[in-house]
Amino acid sequence: MKCGLNTATLAGSFLGGSTKPTAARNLPSTVSAEEWRRWFILSRISSIFYLRTFNAFGCLDNLAWIWVLEKDVKGKGGAELLPTEVGLGKKYVRKSLTDAFRKYLDRRQEWLANLIDFRDSLAHRIPLFIPPYVVPAPNIEKYQALDAAAFGEPGRDPVEYERLKTEQKALVQFVPGMTHSIYEKAPDVEFHSQLLNDYVTLDEYGRTLLEELDR
Fold first, then answer.
1. DSSP letter assigned to residue 13
2. With 0-12 CB in 10 A as exposed, 13-18 as middle and 19+ as buried, what is 186?
3. 178 pairs with which residues across the strands?
4. Quick one: how far is CA 84 from the chain centroid?
């Protein structure tokens, strides 16, 4: 897949999600190939998870529309449902479901609530943030000591500063995960396990709906 990302997108992903052109102006005058590679990878992952969130939500909407059209579900007084009234949790749609299907949806409520929370936050409030790296617990003390050494003395030799930062980078690792906000105690999400969980759950939703349509 070709990806036509500009510098603003690459920088925005690294800096926490903003894709405003001004983000590119904050980049240093020289950027190493490794840093560009990291920005590119983070941008690709960010795009994938945006698609995951909105596509999963869209799949559930599609299932609701299938049910409404196949079962000819109507609203108040037999009126056609408005698009905003179509959804597996919407009043008239849920009322038309069988008891077994409603119980199934209730059992998946925790997964759905998590999906809705991420979708609504991404759409309206909080941009996706993928940490460029994490510091494993056993390395935190040494990482902080190197940080203090690198910034502790004004006018430090720039060569020594780079040596310390290079040593510091060896203590970190990239973890494919995300959170909405590091300040609001938002839950952490590991990409791989979450994507697999979403795929299996959506497949189960679809198969359960097909079984209900055959009743």
1. H
2. middle
3. 189
4. 24
| 15/39 Cα distance (integer angstroms) | 9
Distance from C-alpha of 102 to C-alpha of 99, rounded to nearest angstrom: 5
H helical segments located in 72-96: 91-96
The Cα 146–Cα 150 span in angstroms is: 6
Distance CA 41, CA 47 (A): 10
Is 76:93 a contact under the CB 8 Å cutoff?
no
- pLDDT by residue (tens digit) across 85-133? 999 999 999 999 999 999 999 999 988 887 877 777 777 766 666 777 8
Residue with tokens 């299932």: 63
DSSP 75-106: -GGGPPPPGGG-STTSHHHHHHS-HHHHHHHH
What amino acid occupies position 182?
I
pLDDT in tens, 61-84: 899 999 999 999 999 999 999 999
Neighbours of 73 (CB within 10 A): 20
